[in-house]
Write a structure and sequence with these properties.
Translation Initiation Factor IF3; Alpha-Beta Plaits; 3 domains; five-stranded antiparallel β-sheet; three-stranded antiparallel β-sheet; 5 helices; 38% helix
């Protein structure tokens, strides 16, 4: 009698289990196929890479290095100028000192609108608290000049105005990128000349380059010292000087280093 109380679908459970087993088996097959395809693709990519590397190594080649260098005179000299009310013992405001400085630089033929900039544009003036009640107002400028003679004139003129907190910030050359490329060209030519010198006794011909590496190493720091002129601290210029103090900079050394691989032909 109990059999009549059980739903007829219960007797189909084995068929349902069989159906789910088939679905699960199909999904596992699809996953396995995807993994197999990915593995095959990875293996094929590896073989292609190995083939290309093998083709490169199998070629007879020579590896050489080349270099070239030159020296250029800086044509951009950046002077740091610090205006401070302390230098005038508070007798001259920094605003008045600024006006005097700009007029003096213009008298030297400098374009102050183009070549004179504030080092901190966000805050034109900085205040330094020295004591509980002492506040000193300062302003920092960067002036660009094109040669050492002009720099000497600037130092002298600023010293006359009582502005002695000046120093060389850095030097540069306006055409440095073009000079770098010339050195690169000379360096690769030097490398090929070395390869030719090494292979000519072997009756081999230097073919095209198959690999070139450029090691950039350009020194454009201020290497020289400023001679014959004091650019920091207290006043050092005499009012009765007869000639400009000699100021000179070491030249900027521009060097290019190249490593190249050339195919060898017989």
């Amino acid at each position: 009698m109990l059999l009549w109380l059980i739903e007829p679908d219960v007797f189909q459970l084995p068929q349902l289990h069989k159906h789910f087993n088939i679905v699960g088996h199909t999904k596992r097959q699809l996953t396995y196929m995807k993994r197999l395809k990915l593995t095959a693709l990875f293996f094929l990519t590896f073989l292609l890479g190995q083939s290309q590397t093998k083709n490169f190594i199998d070629q007879p080649y020579i590896e050489v290095s080349g270099s070239a260098d030159t020296f250029v005179t800086p044509n951009e000299i950046f002077i740091k100028i610090l205006l401070s009310e302390k230098d005038t013992k508070d007798r001259v405001s920094i605003e008045e000192l600024e006006i005097r400085m700009v007029n003096a630089l213009k008298a030297l033929g400098l374009d102050t609108e183009k070549d004179l900039t504030t080092a901190d544009i966000a805050s034109n003036f900085k205040f330094y608290l020295l004591k509980s009640k002492d506040v000193i107002k300062t302003k920092l400028y960067i002036l660009k000049v094109s040669d050492a003679v002009t720099a000497s004139k600037v130092f002298i003129k600023l010293e006359e105005l009582g502005i002695s907190n000046t120093t060389i910030d850095r030097v540069d050359h306006s055409d440095l990128e073009r000079i770098k490329n010339i050195m690169r060209t000379n360096a690769i030519a030097n490398a090929k000349a070395r390869a030719t010198a090494l292979t000519k006794p072997l009756n081999q011909i230097v073919g095209p380059a198959i690999h070139i590496a450029d090691t950039e190493n350009y020194n454009q720091q201020l290497l020289g010292r400023v001679a014959g002129i004091q650019i920091r601290g207290a006043t050092t210029f005499q009012n009765d000087y007869k000639e400009l103090p000699k100021i000179d900079f070491e030249k900027i050394k521009v060097t290019a280093n190249i490593t190249a691989k050339f195919v060898l032909k017989t």
